[in-house]
User: Fold this.
Amino acid sequence: MFKNLDIDKVTAAIELLRLRVQERFPTANLLNVCNELKELSNNAKANIQHLNKPYVYFRIIFSFLIILTIVLITYTIWHISSQDLPSNFQSFIATSEALMNELVMIGAAFYFIGKFENSLKQKKILYALQELRTIIHVIDLHQLTKDPTPILQNNTEHSPERALSKSELNRYLDYCSEMLSLTSKVAATYGFNCNDQIVLDTIHNIEVLSGTLSNKIWQKITINT
Assistant:
């Protein structure tokens, strides 16, 4: 029951966070980022459903190759059995060699078609993961200037405006941390039913990046508490 990460539950958690951000910071750009994250989560569900289905045109080609293999083997066996082997040994050898060459070519076609299908799926997943990696950096940019006031006593001419109270700042940073965590959860949903090591490594890197940035945010919250 708890062995799979339900993308619907992740999307529901993002929607709840979006409502919380909207209620407390209705004019903040962080709300737009949360809306974007929810859209990416919805896209993840559609992508996963699509990727779990076989590509029909590849399956048609596979079926054609299987039928062609059966036909070639059947024809060759019939052709060989109909020959007088002692008197047609050269013809027998030539037919056998032709069959082997054809089977090798068909086997190679099986391999490359299968690899090409997996390559297309990998490309789609990596593109989606890159979008999630980008939004992690966008979230980090939104909290970058939200520093606790105790460590910024002397503002300069170009210091960013800090209109948040102490409690509001904690809430804002907490929302950023939650958003980072939920982004990594969306990324993790692409890892189920996937044996592609490149995809799995990319998901792991996103989780590490999200966790590292979240730890930095909590350092600010600790200082501000």
User: Anything to note?
Assistant: The helical segments are 7-24, 29-51, 56-81, 89-144, 166-188, 197-224. Residues 7-150+163-224 form one domain.
